[in-house]
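ok so heres the complex, two chains, lmk if somethin looks off
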Amino acid sequence: MKNSNLYSGEFACLEKANIDTDQIIPKQFLKSITKKGLGPYLFDAWRYNDEGYLGKKPADREINPDFVLNKSDYEGINVLIADENFGCGSSREHAVWALKDFGINVVIASSFGDIFFNNCFKNGVLAVKVSQESLNEIFKEQKENFQKQIEIDLINQKIKIPNIKTINFDIDDFRKNCLLEGLDDIGFSLKYESEITNYENKLKKLRPWILND
Amino acid sequence: MSQRTLYDKIWDDHFVAQREDGSTLMYIDRHLIHEVTSPQAFDGLRQNSLIPRQVGTVVATPDHNVPTTDRSKDIEGIKDPISKLQVVTLNDNCDEFGINQFKLNDERQGIVHVIGPEQGITLPGMTIVCGDSHTSTHGAFGSLAMGIGTSEVEHVLATQCLVTQKQKNMLIEINGQLQKGVTAKDVTMFIIGKIGTAGGTEHVIEYAGSAIENLTMEGRMTLCNMAIEAGARAGMVAPDEKTFDYVANRPFSPKGSDFDKAVKYWASLKTDPDASFNATYSFEASEILPQVTWGTSPEMVAHIEDCVPETIEDDKTVKSALDYMGLKPGTKIKDIEVDQIFIGSCTNSRIEDLRAASKILIGNKISNKIKRAIVVPGSGLVKKQAESEGLDEIFKSAGFEWRDAGCSMCLGMNPDQLKEYERCASTSNRNFEGRQGYKGRTHLVSPIMAAAASLEGKFMDVREI
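and the predicted structre for the whole thing:
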């Protein structure tokens, strides 16, 4: 079993609702045919004051000093906390690849876009839903006390931030296990090979128009 | 047996196994593929020495990156080398794994969500996935159609199953008669304005009621297309006679006795009269007016007689959206001037959309304030049909550019993009920041509202034309 403390570290807040995957990774970076190297373009239009393209070097970029992830205080954070409906919109898994490549392995919000939420767990990124009240408390604590320490105990499903009451969170067992065991999802499903074959044999009789072989 | 919804029935009929971790393996009947979200999935198959389990259920086409001007040079006509590599990679992967592809120079090429229904690949009662969130479009046929991520694309290729969990059921009923000039696009935008972009999260939406039944199949596709903009991974409409007539005799649809058997099955999928939903909404069709978005999320929408919000002090989200859009609080929608018109996308690029928009333009010219107006048919076959009806001539004489099929300016992965601060009346589905071009400004509208806006260079009430 992997270390449950893998997810503890430091956090930054993006206090904005409905952050869509077009903002997390703009379309021009979807032209990549690999999963790697998207971190420099995470939140590209917000992080830089110039228009980015795949392959543009960080040294050639105009940094937006006001954007939270560009502030030296938040250098090296691994937890991003945003407002409701984070990751809505496009199904692009590039959004998760970019977060991960940047070094973020936990996203916390009061709700998520469904496809983004799934994509996180497929890539070892923990997406945690907390109540809007807890979220507001965290935003306040960071603003007032510059708090950025966060302890995330995945096994016991608890988030601890100094000065804030411990937050308990729900997570499906299968998603939790995926993260803890670093599961090979396809390998796991292929254990059900005989069930799939049985289904297909039935399907050929019941709905012969589905599999035209 | 207990009373079940359309979604419950399709779910039950596609249940393969429950994995020991509690998730469900759901059988997938059709898998659509395009160049953007598939390369890493094929790499995964190669790394693990896997092949597609049911290659006959997979159909691919390039759509996101493709140029919409001059197809004579085929792939060599793609100027951006990175875009070109993605399209070439799709070709290579399809060739290697034996996947049926409508290539760039094939007249059946087009936006994946247009060609599925057009070819009869999309059928009622099916489970359909694609690495694209607008897969919800296919729910118009009473199928369960969902956008998936690239890891899931790989998983479905290898196992023909999706690892999933049962979603909640939501019913949205629209009853009554839609006003003249109010389209399926206005209905779907109106709903998003009411329930919000997270309103349908964790749900599958079933749209019902007399106004939905009266929509054409193409209207239902527009409606379900934007279910994802209401947060729902899938939207659906119960299949009926209109659905069966639409799918009959298409290249991929069943023929003869198989078709009769299929219709019998499809007709059994309707939600049972006493089935229960976790959430229900009901609206009157006559309340819906032509819609225009004013912000940077599809829920930021108003009707044509309305204004953008007036008080913004307390609302940072609204303030930042209006700043981005370059709009003053309280601006009348009818006073918003636009630079570009885009008629296209998986939401609104089908033949009925083009017929309706062209009607507004007959004998008219676009305003000289419009810098560019383009029509991008959803597929090569839609383009051909439109040309056979002379629609291309109407668009061209009005001042529109007549293009080749693709996603085009919906997301500007190809050269069709807005310039900084340009404002567009667009028939697409997302008004997100930068979506149509860096710092570009998008207002979502129906095809007839887009055509009307082209005449004056600002939004007009299409009901008055």
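quick notes: The two ends of chain A are 43 Å apart (CA to CA). thats all i got rn
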